[in-house]
Amino acid sequence: MEVPPTLVEKARTARSITVLTGAGMSAESGLPTFRDAQTGLWARYDPMTLATPEAWREDPALVWAWYQKRGAMLQTAEPNAGHLALATWSKFQDIRIVTQNVDDLHERAGSTNVIHVHGSLLTPYCDSCHTPYPADVEEPTGERVPPPKCACGGLIRPGVVWFGEMLPEDAFARAIDAAQRCDLMIVVGTSGIVYPAAGLAQLAQSNGASVAEINPAETEASSQVDIRWRATAATALPALLAQVNP
Ligand code: BV8
Ligand code: ZN
Domains plus CATH for the chain? Predict the structure, then answer.
């Protein structure tokens, strides 16, 4: 596979690389992306309306079942060659991963200190007292599954960031630091629509970094990036790694 020569050059000489990943990173592991039509029971729901505090307030059992479904899909998904390439690369170069994904495929591939700016499917907590609970993922039996209750009587909610919610302060501060300190940012598998996460690419660029986009399709970010590589995560990242570390 032909790797853009400018990207190989930048990757070889970069002091610090930050990789910003979105749902496209996990597509080849079989997890549907946000833009893809929703699977099965929830196909008629728009994820943009389900991933909100309003939906949770209005119909917690529908929202809880949707996240349980996504957690169950994660249990049968495996990290793909893209996740594995990033984990290998980080063994000999300074690679920070900032992910918008709520799955744990980067971690399961062996990447450490992955920055989750939109939370995780695996860290539910009480929406009243914020007590964390272990992820007890079960394949939902139907479209609605009442969420479990906390000892305080509150509902246990998914540990993700919904639209309209603030990003976790510590994670976003680390994401900003990773964007400011890198001299190369690689944006993989994101439509670049959701802020403030999407702003991290512009932040990197304004701090002098080169920004490369790996995505089979055009995105909101395409016009601003320095290098556009129309390829998928699981084919591009191993090919890039092979050029950087022959
Ligand atoms: C905030 C977790 C501030 C949940 C997610 C108007 C009203 C209300 C809010 C706003 C508004 N205007 C702007 C906002 C802010 C809003 C926002 O940006 N909205 C957008 C829609 C305009 N942002 C927020 O609300 C954020 N919080 O701003 O708070 C605030 C709050 C209170 C008070 C004051 C200020 C919080 C946003 C977080 C939402 N949570 N996820 C869950 O997962 O259920 S967002 C979710 O969608 C993802 O995490 C991701 O961030 C986003 C987009 O998804 P992508 O990852 O990009 O995936 P997508 O499907 O879109 O694209 C896939 C891409 O992969 C495609 O490009 C495709 O071509 C590519 N691809 C496909 N296959 C492959 C591939 N690439 C590589 N390889 C492949 N094989
Ligand atoms: Zn509680």
Answer: 1-30+79-120+167-246 (3.40.50.1220), 32-76+122-157 (3.30.1600.10)
